[in-house]
Amino acid sequence: MSKLTNDEIRQNVRSRYKQIAVAEMNAGSCCQPDNSQASCCSTPSDFNSISSRLGYFDDELNAAPEGANLGLGCGNPQAIASLKAGEVVLDLGSGGGFDCFLASRQVGDTGKVIGVDMTPEMVSRARSNAVKGHFKNTDFRLGEIEHLPVADHTVDAIISNCVVNLSPDKQQVFHDSFRVLKSGGRLAISDIVTTADLPPEIKNDLDELYSGCISGASSVSEIEAMLSQSGFTNISVEPKDESKAFIKDWVQGSNIEDYIVSAVIQATKP
User: Which top EC class is named for this enzyme in its record (predicted)?
Assistant: First the structure.
C-alpha cells in the first residue's frame, strides 16, 4: 500500500472509533460492522453479553468501571498473558480502558499499565474511567501502535484485543513492540487471522469491513513471518475455531466465518 492509502486507512479507523467513543447509543462494536444484524445496544449488560461470548468471566466484567467495556474485541488477552504483580503492561489500542483495568488488578500497586490509542476521544474516555474507578496505576497515552509513545526496553508484557489487524503496517507494529519490550518480555494478543483468501469485495471494503476488523486480517503464516522478522522467538499463532460461533454474526449472510477466525498470538523477545 502507498503511504496515502495507509493514511486513509488510519483516518477511516480513527473516525469509526471516535463515533464509538462518543456515542450514547452504540450501533456496533469493533468487530461488528454497522450492517450487522447482531449489532449491540448501549446498555452495559449488552456489552457484557458480547464480552462473555469473547471469553471474559463475570468477575472481570464486573471489575471495570461503567463505560470501560464497549463490547469491542475478538478474545480475552487476560486469559493468555499470565500477568504478574509488579509488571509493566502495554495495551495496544486500549479503547475505553477495559483490558487495562483488568490488567491493573493483576499487576497491583507495584505494577503499571499503559494504554495507547490513536483516537483522542477514546483516550479521554479511558482517562475519565480511570478516575471514576480509582485506578492509579494506569496511564493512557495518545499515539499510533506503529510508533508507540513508550521508551525502549521498559515493558514486561504487551496485550491487545483485535487491534493489530486494523493497522496498515503490521510489520512496523511488531517492530515497535519488540523495541519497547524488555529482554524476556512477551507479546500476548487476541486478533483476527485469515483461514482462506478474502474475496475482493471483502478485502477492498475500507469503509465498513476494514475498520470492522475483517478485511485487514493477515494469515497465520504472514503473522509468524512478521514476528520472526521483528526478532521474536517462541512464536505461536493458534486459531480458535470456536470463534466462528460469534464471527458468523458480524456480517449477516456473508459466510465471513469461512474466511477468518480469532487467534491467540504469542511471542517472546530474547
Answer: transferase
Q: How many CA atoms lie less than 13 Å away from 175 in the CB half-sphere?
A: 9
Start-to-end C-alpha separation, the chain: 31
Q: Which amino acid is at 228?
A: S
**H or E element in which residue 191 lies:** strand 181-194
How far apart CA 53 and CA 198 sit, in angstroms, is: 24
Q: Which residues contact 255 (CB under 8 A, 6 or more apart)?
A: 248
Question: In what helix (H) or strand (E) does residue 50 lie, and over which residues does it extend?
Answer: helix 44-54
Which residue's C-alpha cell is 483485535? 162
Predicted model pTM: 0.87
In whole angstroms, what separates CA 97 from the centre of its chain?
Answer: 11
* pLDDT given at position 30: 45
What is the distance between the alpha carbons of residues 129 and 132, in angstroms, rounded to a whole number?
A: 5
Beta strands per DSSP E along 126-166: 138-142, 155-161
pLDDT category of residue 17 using cuts at 50, 70 and 90: confident
DSSP 95: T
Side-chain-side CA neighbours of 270 within 13 Å: the count stands at: 6
Residue 250's SS3 state is coil
- How far, in Å, are 20, 154, 227 from residue 182 at the CA level? 33, 6, 16
Name which of 105, 58, 38, 24 is nearest 252 in CA terms. 38
Q: Mean pLDDT over residues 14-37, rounded?
A: 57
Asked if 174 and 237 touch (Cβ cutoff 8 Å), the reply is: no
Which ranges constitute the DSSP H helices of 55-119?
A: 58-63, 78-81, 98-107
pLDDT band at 198 (very low <50, low <70, confident <90, very high): confident
Across residues 173-189, what is the average pLDDT?
Answer: 98
Question: What is the pLDDT at residue 3?
Answer: 47
